[in-house]
Design a protein that fits this description.
Layout (H helix, E strand, L loop, with lengths): L1 E5 L1 H18 L4 E4 L6 H12 L9 E4 L1 E3 L10 H8 L11 E2 L8 H14 L5 E4 L21 E4 L2 H7 L12 E4 L2 H5 L3 E6 L5 H9 L17 E6 L8
Parallel strand pairs: 1-10, 2-3, 2-6, 3-5, 6-9, 9-10
Antiparallel strand pairs: 4-8, 7-8
Helix pairs in contact: 1-2
């Protein structure tokens, strides 16, 4: 495991450079991407590096971790909308190279198996970007999700609904379900970049990296990944030695 501790800005810059190096070494890289507030600064650095002609995304394909069930893609809180606003509309990635689970598919179970198959047919994910939830979830894999899980339909916990309500007008508007890559899917990525920011994540990142590997803390499984790079800001790293 590679662990970097620094300012949030340094984490964003170093993480973005690692992704750029990956793409420059393999222009048809398969990226796994995450949403939420944590990766936004890193995405802003990617956009700047693209504008400075340090990288092209013209051959890159992306697969997002997850998407809400039951809200349209055009909704300002959908993850499709988030990715367009925070990355895709600012770089040269072809629209057909962008994939997210379809939370409005008529058959959600089939959508999950189809998504898993599309990832496999692409050759698997070369580099997966992750954040971590306060309860240790990665993607929308809540505590006690089996480590063998693949892309699946998730019933969101109340703590996750409450945490995500800051993006909606009220907690009642937060969808109760989502589609998410499974833990096995995430762990099959050749490299994982985990970004962790804020003092409120200090307890959970300590458990994830230093505690026992247990489904009760889904992110703890990352200790078993052979190529894990962790970028933690100083506030979140308060309990890490």
């Amino acid at each position: 495991m590679y662990l970097f501790i620094g300012t949030a800005e340094d984490c964003d810059k170093k993480g973005a450079l690692e992704i750029v190096n990956q793409i420059n070494n393999k222009p048809d890289t398969i990226l796994g991407l995450a949403t939420g507030s944590t990766p936004v600064g890193m995405y802003q650095n990617l956009i700047k590096l693209y504008r400075d002609k340090k990288v092209s995304f013209s051959q890159v394909k992306t697969y997002n971790l997850d998407e809400y069930v039951g809200i349209p893609r055009e909704h300002v809180c959908s993850y499709y909308y988030f990715m367009q606003e925070n990355l895709f509309s600012h770089i040269d990635i072809p629209a057909e190279n962008v994939s997210l689970p379809d939370g409005n598919a008529p058959d959600l179970e089939k959508e999950c198996s189809d998504y898993e198959e599309r990832i496999a047919n692409s050759g698997g994910i070369d580099l997966q970007v992750l954040g971590i939830g306060h309860n240790g979830h990665i993607g929308f894999n809540e505590p006690n999700t089996p480590f063998e899980s693949v892309t699946h339909l998730v019933d969101l916990t109340q703590s996750t609904i409450k945490a995500n309500s800051r993006f909606f007008e009220s907690e009642d508007q937060v969808p109760r379900q989502a589609l998410s890559m499974g833990i096995k899917t995430i762990m099959q990525a050749k490299k994982i970049l985990l970004f962790v920011k804020g003092a409120d994540k200090a307890d959970i990142i300590h458990k994830a990296l230093k505690g026992p590997v247990t489904p009760e803390v889904p992110a703890s499984v990352l200790q078993l990944h052979p190529n894990l790079h962790v970028y933690v800001d100083k506030a979140a790293a308060a309990k890490l030695k």
